[in-house]
Amino acid sequence: MGTFIVRRLLGMTFVMFVVSVLTYLIFFKMPSGDPAVRLAGKQPTASTIEAINREWGFNDPFYVQYGNMIEKLFTGDLISYDRREDVVERIIDGAPRTFSLAIGAAIIFLILGVALGLFSAVRAGGFNDRLVTVLALIGISIPVFLLGALMNYYIGYKLDWLPAGGYVTIEEGGLWEWFKHLLMPWTALAVLFIGVYSRVVRSSVLDTINDDYVRTARAKGLSERDVLFRHVLRNSMIPVVTLWGLDFGYIIGGGAILTESVFDIQGIGSYFFESIQRLDVPPVLAVVLFGAFFIVLLNAIVDIVYAFLDPRIRLS
Q1: N or C: which end of the chain has fewer CB within 10 A?
Q2: DSSP-assigned letter for residue 58
């Protein structure tokens, strides 16, 4: 297991390096004009462009430019020339909001998706199975911005059960206010994934439930509950773990932009969207690269968990 982890971490480091090089080439070496002009914002002055050329070393060899980019990203020295603010500091400020949204939604859609998928598989072919299938298809089909807007209007404004948007930190309003402000965003973001996960778990359980080792477990006298949870569900969770890691990385890397916008959460996704609208390149560069690094890191963690669940993976 230790050898597998070391090998996977080395592979992760190499992939991160390749991603950073590709990001550098896309943002600074594509034949679409002077990179200093793009970094300077919508209305750059000649003095600003000249200062950016010196600061980023655009007249130096490419490896110096690449090193400057990495240094600025990881030392917090990246500046938005359009808004005159520290980009890394702004991302760090928005990170708790985005992570609160993503972690809560990911926990909800994992638990409910697995529970509904298992429930549907146990009752395959019956009325309950068909009902869960219909609900899953409805959830998959509803756009998150539409569901979020409807929840905001009816639950937030009409019924006044929950706050209609905004974000309150635990320090500002306590745990209960923080929870109330995030409950609707969590639900709106999780509904789509619940439908997907319920179908994946159902299919995986039905593929596993008649395998030889399951029949052997039943023959040994184990209860149906033990067979289902200790043998069937554990092996059925392998594709779910992989999918969950990818989806969680997707949410952090930008998949929560619409949810943050609808509920006015002002996290990293909202900052990314605003920067694109303003043609503000440094924040876009930072969010893209940090998001890519996070996804690569999360995939490595998922692979390690995957190997723990299925020891055969360690040999590959």
Answers
A1: C
A2: T
| Average pLDDT across the chain, whole number | 80
d(CA 39, CA 59): 15
Residue 282 CA: distances (Å) to CA of 1, 45, 177, 285, 300? 40, 17, 34, 5, 27
Q: Which two tokens stand for residue 57?
A: 């070393």
Say which CATH number the domain at 129 has.
1.10.3720.10
Question: What's the start-to-end Cα distance of the chain, in Å?
Answer: 12
114 contacts 240 by C-beta, under 8 angstroms: yes
**Cα torsion angle, 154, 156, 162, 166, sign:** positive
What is the residue range of 198's domain?
A: 94-267
Say what the pLDDT of residue 314 is.
Answer: 55
Per-residue pLDDT tens for 81-117? 777 788 888 888 888 888 888 888 889 988 998 888 8
Number of domains in the chain: 1
Instruction: Count each helix (H run) and each strand (E run) in the chain, helices first.
Output: 14, 2
Using the predicted structure, report yes or no on whether residue 178 has a pLDDT greater than 80. Answer: yes
d(CA 76, CA 88) in angstroms, rounded, equals 5
| pLDDT tens by residue, 116-128 | 888 888 777 778 8
For residue 233 the two structure tokens come to 């569900």
Residue 251 domain-assigned (yes or no): yes
In a domain, 195, yes or no: yes
- Decide: residue 42, CB within 10 A, 0-12 exposed, 13-18 middle, 19+ buried: exposed
